[in-house]
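We store sequence, tokenised fold; for instance:
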Amino acid sequence: MTQGNEHLINELTLARSGVFSILNRDIGDDQSWETTFNIGDRHFYVEGIASRGRPHGVDPDVLLALQTLFFEAGCPEDDTVVCTAYRLLQLTPLGTRGNAYVRLRESLLRLEGVSWLTRVSRQQGGKFRGMTETNRLIDRISVHDISLSASGAGGAIVGSAPLRVTFSRHFAQSIREGFYQILDAELLSDLKQPTARSLYRVLQAHRVGDDGSLARELPVIIAAWREATGLSGQRTNNVRRTLDGAHAHLIAAKYLRNVSYDGSGDSQRITYAFEGEVDPELVALLTDLKVSRPVAEALVADHPERIRTAVQAVKQRLETGYKPRSVAATLVDAVRHPEKYDVPPKQAQTTSGRTGSTKAKREDQPVLLPLSREESLGMVRSLLRVKLGRPAHAETLAALENLDPNAVERLAAAVRGKGNLVDLVQALTGLPA
């Protein structure tokens, strides 16, 4: 990051440091942790304090909903979100019924109660040099409770009553700059599994290079990745089982192109290959209007067909005297939500005169997974479980092992979305999935 954008690092630091566990359940009563790990040439040292438990599960979704409401309110100077619990829940996967108001209260308290120190460094001349930062997300919350015990435990938030959440100044500034929108809300909505959503956040953060560009591949060692994803203390087999389920969802959602493993035990290497390509001309259109490079690249990868019309719409508004708090954040919002800016999505015109988005081109040109036979079948088994909501029948899985290479390649293409995987498995094996 450049010197002028240091206040934006907070969002990346959060996702990179393993502060949120990708698990969808309580990970114990530990209220503090300390860990070190390497991702690429970055060396991380993290001390965390979570007075009400380490954030996990739906907590990052609640945080993203708060950020969205803060931005939509014009990023108030007092750094405070004011809304009803009902409105906040509408933007989360929790829904607005049943115990959602209990879980929301618990989530908000965990978010307010977490703080952490991160030291990110690199080895230079035999010594580690870098930056130490202390961070917290929320300075204060105020909610109306019902059904509390005498000690104040338990209870739910009143759905129609206003709640107030005041961000830390540093974190609020990153929202003003539109930096949190490096995440694709449409993709998050498509990802129904909480672990997959959480892993997406971590992957997206670690993809960002020092120059702000997004890596097309990310190699990690599983022992370090365990710490980076908040799975500290989990056995390697359990870590891989947790990750494999999320990988299947991220491949099906067209975020990941491929996940490969090499080696065994704690030294096992995972290599993530990402879908999407970025047009440097489209990135330049955004960065010229002060959108940070990682956000610009994420927008171009996610919505290349929207970039030119969004830039045009924002420029037209500026020409009529419109003075937003942040031009960059407004432009990001115009790409993410074109309906708010009267910007109808349309096909982007490339410099060579061809039309169509990167995503559209991928639909027309099937790309087979560059995996070994064993890895391809592993992805098929994982995605079958996702599609069926249960493991496939044992005899069907056994039949998959005996398929010829051409059939395995067809299954790999189906995993990539080029056909109905369940129907294809049944056709190739002659057995019900």
